[in-house]
Amino acid sequence: MMTNKDKITGGAVARRGLVMAAVVLGSWSAGPATSLAHDILSPVNQAVEPPFDIIKSSATTDGRWASFMMELAGKSGSIVPEATGAFRGAEVYAYVWPTKIDPSGVGFAEGSGILALAITAHPDFDDTPLHDENGDGDPANDGKNWHAHWAVLAEDAACGAGFKVKEISPGRDLVPATMPDLPIALDAPGQSPLLNDNSLKITLPVKGAEAAAFDAMTARLTVSQEGSEGALLCVTQAHDVASGDLSFPGIIMNK
Question: Which of 186, 227, 232, 252 is the most exposed place for a label (fewest CB within 10 A)?
């Protein structure tokens, strides 16, 4: 019987090199995305599992709150990682909006990397210690529920898709007050995403979003194995990139 992991990784292994090239070098076999009123429209890609195949992405702001939306070829959030029972080596599935918003807009150091908004699920650990997403009274068992993060990304050629969540030193580096207890530039602001059929949406506060460029991608991240060198949390595979080449064609529009 084919597992969720087989669905995501089995057919994707053969095209991983092509996906990496799309992210890092700027090529994409399915053709370029188009834009409409600063949204990003992307062609259906039969090589991508429908829940991770982006067909449209958009973002708006009123100067204080920003809303990000993604439409997919399949049901959003319908595939989650399989639990392994360990933090090390755990997989994270994510819907991601990389942006040109400065990381200082959410409390990280100015100019410290690529600020990305991510909606993630990962059943092997909980990185939202202040929030109880499933409402059972225990805030430490919600990782498998889809939830939002701000993350600062940095390039790392050793990661499968060429990016990692940037390492930081809490107590020395500037970090948001709601950051979880991990030594990476990851914030857990607490807003819940809305998943509805083939779309998902998240609204949360951020400074400096007006007219900022953005892109969209679906991805798999992996926590490094115990004792391994390199990044703690790598972007190991990009399933789809809305622009095709991570060129940030979208613009966050004022409402």
Answer: 227
For every residue of the chain, which 3-state class applies, written as one string? CCCHHHHHHCCCHHHHHHHHHHHHCCCCCCCCCEEECCEEECCCCCCCCHHHCEEEEEEEECCCEEEEEEEECCCCCCCCCCCCCCCCCCEEEEEEEEECCCHHHCCCCCCCCEEEEEEEECCCCCCCCCCCCCCCCCCCCCCCCCEEEEEEEEECCCCCCCEEECECCECCECCCCCCCCCCECEECCCCCCEEECCEEEEEEECCCCCCCEECCEEEEEEECCCCCCCCCEEEEEEEEECCCCCCCCEECEEC
Q: What CA–CA distances, in Å, run from 87 to 92, 126, 160, 172, 174?
A: 11, 9, 19, 25, 25
This prediction's pTM: 0.85
The distance of Cα 63 from the centroid of its chain, to the nearest Å, equals 23
Q: What local confidence, expressed as pLDDT, does residue 132 receive?
A: 56
In this structure, the strands spanning 54-61 and 253-254 are parallel
Say what the pLDDT of residue 186 is.
95
User: Could you give the percent of the chain with pLDDT greater than 70?
Assistant: 79
Separation of alpha carbons 139 and 128, rounded Å: 7
